[in-house]
Design brief:
The chain is an alpha/beta fold. The protein has 2 domains: 307 residues, Rossmann fold (3-Layer(aba) Sandwich), CATH 3.40.50; 148 residues, IlvD/EDD C-terminal domain-like (Glucose Oxidase, domain 1, 3-Layer(bba) Sandwich). Helices cover 37% and strands 14% of the residues. The protein has 22 helices and 14 strands. An 8-stranded mixed β-sheet has the order 7-8-12-11-10-9-13-14. Helix 6 packs parallel to helix 7, helix 7 runs parallel beside helix 15 and helix 14 runs antiparallel to helix 15. Pathway: Amino-acid biosynthesis; L-valine biosynthesis; L-valine from pyruvate: step 3/4; Amino-acid biosynthesis; L-isoleucine biosynthesis; L-isoleucine from 2-oxobutanoate: step 3/4.
Length: 560
């Protein structure tokens, strides 16, 4: 077998391992099976959401692909949290925490059961980066596959996605959307299995994995319910043999040029700000330095080339039909904006894969390099006396680029949402939501419920938002997140008061107030109720959003 290392031999080879083999002999594994390389087929099926609903079915095809090249698959299931379903509730605090838990659980089972390789199937926002983080830690032959995007729904003759429902909640509160309107859209927006259908976090990270080379080109973009998906997954899973033969482990793929390529793709596609957290966290797993300044620098030089939801018109399925991620990469290669020499799990370079992109005639999803939707990419990093370590905002062709407003300060999301829905926030205001960062949340919940309410009430052009929490990829408008340091870590956002003047400017990369914060004492922090369990452990070990919000134990028990 071409595997350079066979950890599974320590588990199953030799007379002294007879007891281990005896557990497996009568549940479907033969001695020959256990003599072959063992590949974990790891997925996050759960019946709590549509995102991962097809994973068990896809795992069957992935296992067949593994067997087709002479290896033995062993199926493993881990957990997932739905950002969209938990949004606006205390359950949303579990989302980012789940990234660490999924990564830890995949690493743990792979080390415990000594898998020789991994085929991972992931879909929702945190399982995709979590799977990649685990693969990076284990550094054995690995292939990462995406379960696929959901299709858009139809509402009164137009395409809709889940962000439309969130914004409709704001319209309903404003009295411009009836109960019947809301029910009709609710029933239509999510028509089946698959992850949220715009260039939100899941689809952004699926694109990232193709560009990094952990996923084979042209597979992730196939929608979840597409008839081509099972066969494509089987063929992609079989690539674990190519990876093993050519030693294309994560350590060979996750290089500095690959990460810069991925940042460029996110920026050019108008992708989710969550990619900033996840790329920095994944880079940390392999010792590649990647900072907010790097991300801003790359985004500045990269034009916005995709017209994708939520800021644009088209869905992830539309991008696939237009030519997919590799069409975008081909544009970036053409402009010298990515390094086409980076390797991928197919054994071919990223440039070679992009050269095979087939552009659909008359497609409008990906612009020509000479006619971008905006001169620079969608990821903008702001700094100033409110965020000395940085803050992140997604700016598309339709986003206001500056705002000067009066702070309306809230210690938590619920109070801010009530104020927006109740009409207490108006033009010229800057909503500030603090103590919702990685440590303060804990878990850095997304503020989509609030941002969507702002948009739904027709305030998207006149109201901005600043938070030490984060945003869904479905967020639109001038919404600034990841403010670092967070309030719970003593950040200056904790010193703001309602009535302070806040200046936001994407062009000058500014987030500042003219209030004299040096004379103020922070008010008592609201804290959280967790003294034990997963949230307490997370809050005790998580670091800054500027560093990817990774959990790193240190000798004194504080975040590193």
């Amino acid at each position: 077998m071409p595997f350079h290392e066979r950890p599974s031999r320590a588990l199953y080879a030799g007379p002294e391992r007879a007891a281990a083999r005896s557990y497996l002999r009568n549940i479907g594994f033969t001695p020959d099976d256990l003599d072959r390389p063992v590949v974990g087929v790891v997925h996050s099926w759960t019946g709590t959401m549509p995102c991962n609903l097809n994973h068990r079915d896809l795992a069957v095809h992935a296992a067949a692909g593994v067997r087709s090249v002479g290896y033995t698959p062993m199926e493993v299931n881990t957990i997932a949290i739905s950002d969209g379903i938990t949004m606006g509730t205390p359950g949303m605090r579990a989302s980012l925490v789940s990234r660490e838990l999924v990564a830890d659980s995949v690493e743990l089972v792979a080390r415990g059961h000594m898998f020789d390789g991994i085929v991972g199937i992931a879909s929702c926002d945190k399982t995709v980066p979590a799977m990649a983080m685990a693969m990076a830690r284990i550094d054995r032959p690995s292939v990462l596959l995406y379960g696929g995007t959901i299709l858009t729904g139809r509402f009164r003759g137009r395409e809709v996605a889940v962000h439309d429902v969130f914004e409709a909640i704001g319209a309903h509160a404003a009295g411009t959307f009836t109960d019947a309107d809301l029910d009709e859209m609710e029933a239509a927006a999510c028509p089946g299995a698959g992850a949220c259908g715009g260039q939100y976090t899941a689809n952004t990270m699926a694109m990232v994995m193709e560009v990094l080379g952990l996923s084979p080109a042209r597979v992730n973009g196939i929608p979840a319910v597409d008839a081509d998906k099972p066969e494509a997954v089987a063929a992609a899973a079989a690539l674990v043999d190519t990876v093993a033969t050519n030693d294309l482990r994560p350590s060979a793929l996750l290089t500095r040029p690959a990460f810069e390529n991925a940042v460029a793709a996110v920026a050019a596609s108008g992708g989710s700000t969550n990619a900033v957290l996840h790329l920095i966290a994944l880079a940390a797993e392999v010792g590649v330095p990647l900072t907010l300044d790097d991300i801003d620098r790359i985004s500045r030089r990269t034009p916005l080339l995709c017209d994708l939801m939520p800021g644009g018109r088209y869905s992830a399925a539309d991008l696939h039909a237009a030519g997919g991620t590799m069409l975008l990469v081909a544009r970036l290669v053409e402009g010298g904006l990515v390094d086409g020499s980076t390797p991928t799990v197919t054994g071919r370079t990223l440039g070679e894969e992009a050269a095979d992109a087939v552009e659909s005639p008359r497609q409008r999803v990906v612009a020509p390099l000479a006619e971008p939707f905006a001169a620079e990419g969608g990821l903008v990093v702001l700094r100033g006396n409110l965020a000395p370590d940085g803050a992140v905002v997604k700016v598309t062709a339709h986003t206001p680029r500056s705002h000067t407003g009066t702070a309306r300060v809230f210690d938590g999301e619920r109070a801010a949402l009530d104020a927006v829905l109740g009409g207490a926030v108006g033009p010229g205001d800057t909503v500030v939501i603090r103590h919702v960062g990685p440590r303060g949340g804990p878990g850095m919940p997304e503020m989509l419920q609030v941002t969507s309410a702002i948009m739904g009430r027709g305030l998207g052009e006149t109201v901005a938002l600043v938070t030490d929490g984060r945003f869904s990829g479905a967020t639109r408008g001038l919404m600034v997140g990841h403010v670092a340091p967070e309030a719970a870590a003593g950040g200056p956002i904790g010193l703001l008061r309602t009535g302070d003047r806040i200046v936001l400017d994407a062009d000058t990369r500014t987030i500042a107030t003219d209030a004299d914060l040096t004379t103020r004492t922070p008010p008592p922090a609201p804290g959280h109720e967790f003294t034990r369990g997963v949230f307490a452990k997370y809050a005790a070990t998580v670091g800054s959003a500027a560093g990817g919000a990774v959990t790193t134990p240190s000798s004194n028990g504080a975040p590193a």
